[in-house]
Design goal:
The structure is a homodimer. By secondary structure, the first copy, chain A, is α/β, with parallel strands linked by helices. Chain A contains 11 helices and 18 strands. In chain A, the strands form 4 sheets. In chain A, strands 3-6-2-1-9-11-12-10 form an 8-stranded mixed beta sheet, with helices on both faces. Chain A has a 6-stranded antiparallel beta sheet with strand order 14-15-13-16-18-17. In chain A, strands 4-5 form a two-stranded antiparallel ribbon. In chain A, strand 1 (3-8), helix 1 and strand 2 form a beta-alpha-beta unit. In chain A, helix 5 (152-163) runs parallel beside helix 7, helix 6 (197-205) runs antiparallel to helix 7 and helix 8 (274-284) packs across helix 9. The longest helix of chain A has 25 residues, at 63-87. In chain A, 49% of the residues are buried. The A-B interface holds A 16, 19-20, 50, 53-54, 56-58, 60-62, 64-66, 68-69, 71-73, 75-76, 78-80, 82-84, 86-87, 93-94, 96, 99, 120, 143-145 and B 16, 19-20, 50, 53-54, 56-58, 60-62, 64-66, 68-69, 71-73, 75-76, 78-80, 82-84, 86-87, 93-94, 96, 99, 120, 143-145.
Chain lengths: 403, 403
């Protein structure tokens, strides 16, 4: 008998029909002889609707009251799912975050799980019950309700799997697993049978938003085996686990990210500490800098180019002006019309030919490479946004040719 | 400085505008130098919407999951009201039933408050905060959410007032107070300045559903002074308090109740214990019997006539058939086409003329009296439903003549 954690997102429980569909998946897993704990998010648009109500009354509400409000969303979905399981004659009990023992930090709207008191959960498992747990929420030391922020339900599921040493944590979504690239955009996209935590992290960061990063990091830390699979189509999904347990693949996937702005600062005085000063200021403003290129400019000056999320572009420009008050504003150039295309795979560090194969595929398709960044398991290039889809297809076809 | 409990029902917080209206009432009370605790119900149709969701998924859901579901309703309304108070710069905190210390029995959907742990509430009052408490809900010894049943928020407010020895418990509604009769039906209806708990209980039982009976009984038991007033029109309402503190009025009000069925059982064998047997059976089925008339029938038989709520009429008929299997079904007559008109007033016990004035008013208007029941503070008559409004107006005009 195994203990399986199953997590379902808001769209999977959006209406009565979908709630019954989830109940059937859970019931089947239970009837196969497994212990099952289900973690669910709020139904469909519930969270957005609650946020809209709050904004209408007071856009400057406290975060404490926001968490009190939002936690009602999962309270509704867990009790409805429990009722659906009752209909299938499955012994079941729903538990709110605090009832399931989720103790968190006090940081409202972005709390971290500190500890899970598993006593209640274990006692309900001992009674042979399926447990439906409210994801995304917990309680802090003041006995106040907290929420875990974006993707919090994934984190709840993985944390519970870690605390209970579950055999598997299944994350049900509206896709069948992790693909070599976005299947809605590239027809040749292939579903991966398995992927390492690190590869998954790179793919998530690069725009394949299937799993929340925090949950993958936690799964890696506690070695929780994840499976990403579809709640609508009952086929095996993608297993996410540690590298040692799986065959290394050269390339795991190809991604495109258009949420990139390239910022160039031209003709900076070429003396030590200039770059440090700038990146220190950006870090203080919590602006994440991705690819950095520094090059010699004309006559004792240097140019620094880097990329940030588009949302941070103007804030980054302000940081530059603060850092270098004497700079000519014309020498600060922000370009949002670019995209990042990356190949990800833990195997590439031992295959030096990967980069040249990628560049060759782009060159053969007349795509100009703007900047390049490499890590042990990733190679990224910046291209113009107009040719990003073409670049994605070209690189994907190179590494995953049509059968 | 006084401690004032203010309770607002679902219609008072139905939308953003009304939530702000309630926040203003609370803020004004707070700014006058009072400690304020607000008890609120779920917004408008929220509870009905949640029930509909549950029914769609599984009409035979457990009560435990129903309470888990319904409690989300007040969770939403308390946090929204807290945000509205934050907008008015009032220090405020919202508390769920369990956070406010409401310990209840384990009877899901109809739990009784056993004890209120006031520690958290007192500590928030010490911080000079307005506290917004979720009415209707609590927690049982299993750490599971319970709800208090119909009118539960009134009960929450009164129980909290009793536990904290509050100076006053204000129940805000959509009417301005308690009237001598239904002001929507009788133009001459007059608002009462004050009324005793017992009179209020009789009026509530007889159809003037402004305050929940349990809450009035609890207020009487713990001597909590209630005020019923309007959340839309800021004028003094009606004070409900103990009789010793107020002038006795002959008649406090006149009510009409059309939810009455009259059941006659004819030609029962005239021997001891027949009536007992029947009423014992009805009590076992939790059927509340109101007016009872027993009369000699023909040739050594007797007739028993009594009234019940219309919803219980058929169940009562079944009880009769079970009790007297040999009875001719034609001798069991159920008539739902009747109404009960009552006068209520603690003063009438010392004024024997009240009954004859009431009967005279009905006779003068050619209204036939079917059955009569009297208690120390109430006289009720049964009339045909078609003439009930006319009877109500006639009796009201007798005791409350137009100025």
């Amino acid at each position: 008998m195994s203990l399986i954690i199953q997590k379902f997102g808001g769209s999977s429980v959006a209406d009565a029909e979908r709630v019954m569909n989830v109940a059937n998946i859970v019931a089947n897993t239970y009837r196969e002889g497994n212990d099952v704990i289900v973690v669910v998010s709020a139904q469909g648009d519930t969270t957005d609707d609650l946020i809209a109500k709050a904004e209408e009354i007071n856009p400057r509400h406290s975060k404490r009251e926001m968490d009190q409000l939002l936690a009602a969303g999962e309270q509704i979905s867990i009790s409805l799912l429990a009722m659906a399981l009752e209909k299938l004659r499955i012994p079941v009990i729903s538990l709110l975050g605090w009832q399931a023992g989720f103790n968190t930090s006090s940081a409202y709207t972005m709390a971290r799980i500190k500890k899970i008191d598993t006593e209640r959960v274990r006692s309900e498992l001992d009674k042979n019950k399926v447990i439906v747990v409210a994801g995304f929420q917990g309680i802090n030391k003041y006995d106040d309700i907290t929420t875990l922020g974006r993707g919090g339900s994934d984190t709840s599921a993985v944390a519970l799997a870690a605390a209970l040493h579950a055999d598997k944590c299944q994350i049900f979504t509206d896709v069948e697993g992790i693909y070599t690239t976005d299947p809605r955009k590239v027809p040749g996209a292939k579903k991966l049978a398995e992927i390492t935590y690190d590869e998954m992290l790179e793919l998530a960061t690069l725009g394949a938003q299937v799993l929340n990063n925090r949950s993958v990091e936690m799964a890696k830390k506690y070695n929780v085996e994840l499976e990403v699979l579809s709640s609508l189509n009952p086929v095996p999904g993608t297993i996410v686990k540690e590298a040692a347990k799986m065959e290394k693949m050269l390339i795991r996937g190809v991604t495109k990210d258009t949420d990139v702005a390239r910022i160039s600062v031209l003709r900076l005085e070429d003396k030590p500490g200039v770059a440090f000063k700038l990146f220190d200021r950006l870090a203080a403003k919590k602006i994440n800098v991705d690819i950095i290129l520094q090059s010699a400019g004309r006559r004792g000056t240097k140019d620094i180019t880097f990329t940030v999320n588009e949302a941070n572009a103007e804030l980054a420009r302000e940081c530059i002006m603060d850092c270098f008050p004497d700079i000519d504003p014309e020498n600060v150039i922000v370009d949002k019309n670019i995209a990042k295309v990356s190949v990800v795979g833990a195997g590439m560090e031992t295959h030096p030919g990967t980069a040249s194969r990628m560049f060759d595929a782009l060159y053969s398709n007349a795509i100009n490479i703007d900047m390049i960044s490499t890590s042990e398991i990733k190679i990224s290039v910046l291209v113009e946004e107009e040719v990003a889809d073409k670049a994605l297809s070209a690189v994907h076809a190179e590494f995953f040719p049509e059968d």
